[in-house]
Design goal:
The protein has about 70 residues and is mostly helical. About 75% of the residues lie in helices and about 0% in strands. The two termini are about 20 Å apart.
Length: about 70
């Protein structure tokens, strides 16, 4: 799946604007509550914003899965 260069950089562990979002994603996947809080605070995202984004992503995944 083609992704922008900046996303590839984040996935390879390099720096870039998407690294903090990838860190948050990994914390969510690991169900690491304290890491989720730390990452979301660093991104200035509220709990509600994070929860809404997760629900939106799950809904999108269900549509792809069909």
């Amino acid at each position: 799946m083609p992704v922008p260069d900046r996303v590839q950089e984040a996935l390879r562990g390099e720096s870039g604007p998407y690294v903090p979002y990838l860190d948050l994603l990994r914390a969510i996947e690991d169900d690491a509550v304290f890491d989720i809080r730390e990452c979301s605070e660093r991104l200035m995202l509220s709990r509600q914003e994070v929860n809404r984004a997760v629900l939106t992503a799950l809904q999108g995944a269900r549509q792809i899965d069909g």
